[in-house]
Amino acid sequence: MIKRLGIFGGAFDPVHKGHTQSLKYISDLKIIDEIQVIPNYASPHNKDIQTDEKHRLKMLEIGFKEIKNIKLNDIELKNKTKSYTYETLKHLKEIYPEQHLSLIIGLDSLHSFTTWKNWENILSLCSLLVLERKLNDSLGLNKELESKISPDYDDFFSGHGKILILKNDLINISSTDVRHKIKNNENLTDLVDDQVLEYISKKSLYKI
Fold first, then answer.
1. Residue by residue, what is the 3-state secondary structure of 39-82?
2. Cα dihedral 138/142/146/148 (nearest 10)
3. In-domain check, residue 143
4. Which segments in the chain show pLDDT lower than 50?
C-alpha cells in the first residue's frame, strides 16, 4: 500500500544525471513509497521540447530502470496538450485520495513557485520536497512559502502545504546544457547515464 507518493515532472529532454541522481538520493532516504515520473507533452513554461515523447519516455525507462520504487506515468503525454501541475495533481488526488503527495522540485523552482498557475491550490493538494541547488544568495524566498518550511520529516508528512528542503550535493546541469554539448560533440560521461547516451547516439537525437 502506497502511503507516501512522490511526483517528479518535467520535459526530460533528455533525462540526465541531475534527474536520475536526485531521485536515487530521495529513494535511498526511504521516506517515499513510490515516485511517479511524469514527462510533459508540452511544457507549461513554454520551453521548446525538441524530442518526440516516445524517445523521451524510452530514455526515462533506461535512466530509471535500476531504481525499484520509480514508476513512469504518461498521463500528460496522453492528454496531448500543455499540462499544468495543478491539473495533474488534482487528477492524481482523485486516484490516491488517502495518500500524502510530495511534489519534487529544485530550489530554483521553489523561488519561482508563486508564479506557477494556481500555486496556492497546488499546496492544498501536496507538499513540496525541494532539492537544494546553489543559487544566488540575493534570491529571497517568498515570506508565505518561508513560513511553510518544515523542520523535520514528521512535520512534513503530517499534512499538505508543507515544504521540506533536502540538503544534498547533486549535479547541477540542465537539459539545455546537455543538448548544447551533444550538438558540439562534447564529452557527457559525467552528465548523462551511459545507456541513455547510447540511445541518443543510436537514434541521432539533438544533432540538429
1. ECCECCCCCCCCCCHHHHHHHHHHHHCCCCCEEECCHHHHHCCE
2. -150
3. yes
4. 136-138
Per-residue cell: 170: 547533486
Residue with cell 488517502: 98
* pLDDT attached to residue 43: 74
- Alpha helix (H) ranges present in the chain? 17-29, 53-64, 75-79, 85-95, 107-111, 119-125, 143-146, 153-156, 175-183, 194-202
Q: Which CATH number goes with the domain that contains 42?
A: 3.40.50.620
State the Cα–Cα distance between residues 32 and 123, nearest whole angstrom.
Answer: 18
CB of 41 closer than 8 Å to CB of 82: yes
C-alpha cell at 176: 539545455
Query: Does residue 131 lie in a domain region?
Result: yes
Q: Evaluate whether residue 134 is within a structural domain.
A: yes
Residue 193 resides in a domain: no
Q: How many domains does the chain have?
A: 1
- Structural domain for 11, as ranges: 4-170
